[in-house]
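A protein record in our archive is deliberately plain, so that people and models can read it alike. The tokens are whole numbers drawn from a learned vocabulary of local backbone shapes. For reference, a complete record is included directly beneath this paragraph.
>
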Amino acid sequence: MGKEVKIKDLKPGMDNITIKVRVLEASKPKVIQTRKGSRIISEALVGDETGRTRMTLWGRKAGSIKAGEVIRLKKAFVTAFRGVAQLNIGKQGEIVKLDDSEVAASNKIPENSPKAEASKRPYRRMSFKKFSRKGGRRE
């Protein structure tokens, strides 16, 4: 089991994490288009006593949680979305329902969200050099 972290500690690129959260909102599953084709997802707003963030549930996990539930995520991963670190749970991940007392009550969860520092986004950088046709010899 990965090390258990808190919402405030989330950083894009983290993988195989374990975290306990309260589900504040949960949406119905929907189909989106990705580079890999159509995928089913659902989204949720989750939090603990250190903050709150959005979470995306992929594939069979989509739609599997409800507002008000307290859950432990295992093998979750973190991405950046609009400058905020966001939780994700996919087919490798697990969702375990916990007792309500395991996470702070909804009204005790702060509004702050973990920031994704813009400088740490090398995976978004693209090189256009290979597309450049300038400088080639003309016959």
Summary: The mean pLDDT is 87. Strands lie at 4-5, 17-26, 30-34, 37-48, 51-58, 70-81, 84-89, 94-97. The first strand starts at residue 4 and ends at 5. The chain is about 0% helix and 40% strand.
